[in-house]
Amino acid sequence: MNFDYTDEQKALKDEARRFLAAVSPLSVVRTALENPTEGFDRALWQRIGEQGWCGAAIPEEHGGIGMGYVELCALAEELGRALAPVPFASTVYQFAEGLLLAGSEAQKADLLPQVAAGTLIGTLAVTEGPGVLTAERIATRFSGGALTGSKLPVTDGLAADRAIVLAMADAEPGLYLVDLTGEGVERRSVSTIDPTRGAAEITFSGAPAQPLGQPGKGLEELARIEDRAAILLAFEQLGGADRCLEMARDYALERYAFGRPIGSYQAIKHKLADVFIRNEVARANAYYGAWALSTDAPELPLAAAAARVAGSAAYLLASRENIQTHGGIGFTWEADCHFFYRRARHLGLILGAPRDWKRRVADRLEQRVASENEGKAA
Questions:
Q1: What would the pLDDT profile of 67-108 be if each residue is shown by its tens digit?
Q2: Rounded to an integer, what distance in angstroms lies between the CA atom of residue 313 and that of residue 290?
Q3: Cis peptide leading into residue 153 (ω within 30°)
Q4: Shortest CA distance to 22 belongs to which of 40, 2, 48?
Q5: 242-264 confidence digits (pLDDT tens)
Q6: Is residue 177 within 8 Å of 212, Cβ to Cβ?
Q7: Dihedral sign, CA of 114, 62, 292, 351?
Q8: Which of 82, 296, 306, 354 has the greatest number of CB atoms lying within 10 Å of its CB?
Q9: What is the secondary structure of 141-172 as a DSSP string?
Q10: How far apart are CA 239 and CA 247, in angstroms?
Q11: Alpha-carbon distance 252 to 298, whole Å?
Q12: Rounded to whole angstroms, how far apart are CA atoms 358 and 317?
């Protein structure tokens, strides 16, 4: 099993890095951060749409370019490295994957070409405040073809045109497709630690909606969407963690104290070595997840949970140690270190807290062991 990119995929990744370095330097991130009303950089989003990245894994019959999921993982890694302030994850990893997994042919034919062209922004609206998501905690209702209730927070909820919403109908959870620009929808901006990824509270007051997927299977279908999104987000986290390590290394080599680069001191060496090891663990798990995603392997749920846990831990550690390595200036607004810490905290929470994903790892390992034991007994 080859756990590395092919030469063609490396070329795509290199080209993506050059493109983002030209159109999305950290000054673009700072502009988005200081103007949180929009919640993303619209001009950058348009440029990315023109590149065809939004349709990388969407089949050609639905307007995409059908490159495949490993190629999409490569793009995700570079978007994470650049901290691109765009609703790519919400639209491509979550909304488009939800349509591909659960959408009808009519829904796919209508919406996926718009996603692929970068002309439609989508999102996933499932949570209703803090806490583990269960059927008992879902207050949003679907009845008579309309939704009532509210979702909080919804990442990219201000920018999105459409949303996949989790709601109850006849005491059973289901997924529903909603036009956020239509009647019965009210959106309110909410502040988060990463204003470059705008968030909203969305209130539905009889908003017209249409079912997505099988009635009563909302939580199961949501779990499948989250597994696929978790792997793609793990690559964004890996890209960000690698960038943090490079920033810390470069600063440790150029900053002198007592006549020596600070990188020559054991305290800094050990710090950066710990980050490197954690990044490599995240890379191995992300690559395993990419393989499972691209082959739709039975191991996908376990690989997704492992990638999610490792990616979240690596990015958070790398962003923290980057600040520490920069010393006093690392804590200032003028330094760029806090951009990565904000994104690390944000990405670590948008699909559920790390402790929830650690529980999924344990549950899925137990299921695999039980299945293997049943096979041996038979």
A1: 999 999 999 999 999 999 999 999 999 999 999 999 999 999
A2: 18
A3: yes
A4: 48
A5: 999 999 999 999 999 999 999 99
A6: yes
A7: positive
A8: 306
A9: EEETTEEEEEEEEEETTTT-SEEEEEEEETTE
A10: 12
A11: 44
A12: 17
Distance CA 263, CA 326 (A): 11
Kindly state the DSSP code that residue 217 receives in the 8-state scheme. -
Q: Rounded distance, CA 60 to CA 35, Å?
A: 36
Q: What confidence tens digit (pLDDT) does each residue in 125-153 have?
A: 999 988 888 889 999 999 999 999 999 99
Question: Is this model's pTM higher than 0.85 or not?
Answer: yes
Distance, CA of 162 to CA of 178 (rounded, Å): 6
Q: Which two tokens stand for residue 133?
A: 């998501």
Structure tokens belonging to residue 332:
């200032």
Residue type, 75: L
> E strands along 233-285, which residues?
256-257, 260-261
Cα within 13 Å of Cα(378), Cβ side: 6
Neighbouring C-beta atoms of residue 177, cutoff 10 Å: 24
Place of tokens 């060496």: 269
The residue type at 370: A
Between CA 120 and CA 96 the distance in angstroms is 10
